[in-house]
Write a structure and sequence with these properties.
Length: about 190
Amino acid sequence: MAARPISSDPRSQKSRQQILDAMHRLARKGELSSISSLSREADVTRATFYNHFDTIEEAAWFAILDSFDRLLARAFDERESGASFDAAAIKNLGEMVELLRAEPQLVHLADAFDNGSDLRGVAEIFRVQNRLVWTDSARESDTAEVEVTYAAAGLYAVLSIGARGADDPEAVARIAHSLLPEWMRQPDRG
């Protein structure tokens, strides 16, 4: 799947963000049912929705991607501010569990999105983010793509199962973190 480029036009960016925000609101209430209801909640027309996304599943995928991107950026910022990588990673993973738990409709829709890669749905979002962590680690490997994909599938399995349970999100995050490959748990260079 080749993502549509995000327009630099402020009006277009605003309407896209309105759609993504409305998806989160409706999903938290369990009312994410159609593009029409989503468009009404976002205060945009159906045509505007289709200017940004082809399906509600694609929009859900991007809503989760955007949320996870913000969480990852915050984890990188915390690390830059002196937090240990482990603490920042566990907090980040816990926040992901909380989002998955709070918005099951959104996760279900995003998981139905066929993005054209080997991994579907939210698992592909984890792969996208793992690539960023891999790049940040400045490691070189002939098996990088396999390692990134393996870690993404494992993370999604642990976090999605944890999101369906009643365990504390931090406890789920600690388990997920302990199962990560070494390059993700200890990416510090030098």
